[in-house]
Amino acid sequence: MTKRYIIIGDGIAGATAAENIRDRDEDAEIKVFTDEDTALYNRIMLKNYMKGTLPKQYTQMHDMNWYEKRDIDLHLETRVEEVDTMEKVVSAGDEDYSYDKLLVATGGAPRKLPQDENFENLHYMWTMNDATEIKESAEEAEEAVVVGGGLLGIDLAMAYASNDCETHYLIRGSNWWRRGLDEEGAEIIHQKMEEKGVNVVTETEVSSLEGGGEVEKVISQDGREFECDEVAVAIGQTPNSDIIDVEKNEVGMIKTDEYLETSAEGVFAAGNMVEYESPVFEKRAVNGSWDHSEAMGERAGANMVGEKAEFDFVNTYGVGHFDVQFLAIGDWNGEPVSKKYSEDEYRRLFFDGDRLVGAVMIGYTKGQKELKSMIKEKKEVNDKEELISQD
Prior knowledge:
By secondary structure, the protein is α/β, with parallel strands linked by helices. It has three domains: 4-108 and 238-305, FAD/NAD(P)-binding domain; 112-233, FAD/NAD(P)-binding domain, CATH 3.50.50.60; 324-388, 2-Layer Sandwich (Enolase-like, domain 1), CATH 3.30.390.30. It has nine helices and 26 strands. The chain has helices at residues 12-24, 46-51, 64-69, 128-140, 151-161, 183-195, 290-305, 368-376, 384-388, and strands spanning 4-8, 29-33, 72-75, 80-84, 89-92, 95-98, 101-104, 108-110, 122-124, 143-147, 166-170, 198-201, 206-210, 217-220, 225-227, 230-233, 237-239, 254-255, 267-269, 274-278, 283-285, 316-319, 326-330, 335-342, 345-352, 355-362. It has a five-stranded parallel sheet with strand order 3-2-1-7-19. The longest helix is centred in the C-terminal third of the chain and has 16 residues, at 290-305. The model has no long low-confidence stretch (mean pLDDT 96). Pfam families: Pyr_redox_2, Rubredoxin_C. InterPro entries: FAD-bd_OxRdtase, FAD/NAD-bd_sf, FAD/NAD-binding_dom, FAD/NAD-linked_Rdtase_dimer_sf, Rubredoxin_C.
């Protein structure tokens, strides 16, 4: 009997899952739904597209022919409105579709700035269309404000600065990416941004936005004023999970077990904005990196077909804007040990007791594969200072 698989979302998690299902079941009926107007593109490459260093066509990963060759039925510009997990039916457009196994890979949507009153020149970044809008605005703007001290915020700041736009980068805390870096490590990244023309402003929150239909001035809580032509915001995401009634965490992320199956039988979830049981870190985890979402899609697709293997991936995240490499591996919530080796070299390791669980490296990235292996194999470290020594 032909199995029916439905995947909601054509990001890297959804597309990878569809491919893995087809590899394992040549007779399966596979449908993929996305509300976007184009097939899978590389979100990681969008930062270079926005900077103007990569043509748009090189961000595209799949075209319609890719799906047709694999007999995968891709529905573009089709929003799934509801999932009935009891009847195993997905409602999309004006039709209902039955499934045997379902994957929810809907990701998240950018969190809006509280002061946003639908200003025409205030931008959020997630889709290809968002990236095009930001690219075009960066090419025309003379002065911009970017809000958000995370991994996407730095991409937005560099997009404007790379287009010779005076860019004010507002960070709420003491330094960029406080989740994984202390001030000493972040100072290297701050300096690299300043060299590229970004004015890094820490300990700064937005109090108000002034202007009519467009923002003309950003006012901080301490009274500083930043005039601007354009504003871009990256202050997190909210999960796209309202379409389905399964167990979720306190912020609405879909929860899964270690096999990526949800509380509803036959329903799996993958991608960013999914909280899963990690056998590596021995706790519930969330990760939004590209390679992590791809690996999630691969594992979910295989498990939907009938395999039963734990999702034990250890992620890596990189920032490629500067002449020094930045890498973050694993989990960054443990007890940290850090060391700065030079003006451009820094490392921070994270431990759960005596077990290495994460690493952040700037400049000095030697041994990254060994560290990743230690994390996955749950090796205990007797001498943490020796491990972080440059020798």
